[in-house]
Amino acid sequence: MPELPEVETVRRGLLEILDLPSEEIVSVKKSSKKLRYNSTLAQLHQVKSQKIRAIHRKAKYLLFELDRHYLLSHLGMTGSWRIEQDKRKHDHIRILLKGGRVLTYHDPRRFGFFEVLTKESLSQLDRFKSLGPDPVVDPSFTGEYLFNKTRSKQTSIKSLIMDQKVVVGVGNIYASEALYLAGIHPEKPAGRLTAFQVERLAEAIVEVLQDAIDCGGTTISDFKQAGGSAGYFQNFLLAYGRDREPCCFCGHRIESRAIVGRNSFWCPHCQKL
DNA sequence: CCTAAGTCCTGAGTGC
DNA sequence: TGCACTCAGGACTTAG
After folding, report:
1. Which residues touch strand C (CB under 7 A)?
2. What is the pLDDT of residues A40-63, one digit of tens each?
């Protein structure tokens, strides 16, 4: 489930639980199952006795800043970080902390990953080079910026705003929500939107992501905050998951269909193609 | 049998 | 023919 608000929620939860900047790593252990990418045991060994100085979020990535390294974590579809004493099935990374607590990465589908990076390698990381602006952090994410990105694009606007090279943090849930708020059909070819429509969309993206952060994220099936509680933005979703329910603006029934492989929800009256 | 919060890779198609 | 680029679809995986 982790889109930008969920990753930010995990980050804030960890900041509350952990004693930064003096939380010391005793050792890092991994399960035998492979994540999407894998650090070697030697790399994991390198971070031993370093302290966790800060936790950053870059797009949907979590970045633990240590004394001499970074730990880069992506949550994939089902990843989560908890302070967890008991071992559970699908726990893949266990960071033992001085004092006995265990920072644990749990991920049933294993689409996420966990990597040890040197501080020097971070700036040259290909994964970060092509990322677009962050709607809740970067003032450069504006309607004008997004409008320029849509020009001469044939692809659907939903697909475009889920492209992390264009704008980071928007996944399948918040894409439907933002398009619904902006009154734009998800299949509308991006290049055919007006500047006014794209302005509304950029505003809707910022609003929906910020509101979801304020709610501690969206819990659909198994997302949990670092402290173990569920988010509650799912109670405020207006389009996603509301197939055949009445539109809260006009009362027409919400439609749903897969667009570019992902299920999408929209009001056929408010969001014309 | 179907579906699911995200990337990454491949291959088809287009235009220069 | 070939190169650069855009775009769609599949693969990865487990649980319900």
Report:
1. A 33-34, 89-90, 108-111, 153-156, 159, 221, 260-261
2. 999 999 999 999 999 999 999 999
User: What's the length of chain A?
Assistant: 273
The spacing between the Cα labelled CA in A105 and the C1' in C11, in angstroms, equals: 23
Nearest nucleotide to A162 by CA–C1' distance? B6
Q: Give yes or no for a contact between A92 and A105, defined as CB atoms under 8 angstroms apart.
A: yes
CA closest to C8 C1', residue? A260
pTM for the full predicted model: 0.96
pLDDT, position A226 = 76
pLDDT digits (tens, 9 = 90+) for A174-210: 999 999 999 999 999 999 999 999 999 999 999 999 9
Strand B positions within 7 A of protein Cβ atoms: 3-8
Long-range contacts of A213-218 (CB under 8 A, 24+ apart): A213/A4, A213/A5, A213/A8, A213/A9, A213/A136, A215/A5, A216/A9, A217/A1, A217/A5, A217/A6, A217/A8, A217/A9, A218/A1, A218/A3, A218/A5, A218/A6, A218/A173
Confirm if A108 and A90 have CB atoms less than 8 A apart.
yes
> What amino acid positions of A are annotated as catalytic residues?
2-3, 60, 262
Average pLDDT over residues A25-38: 94
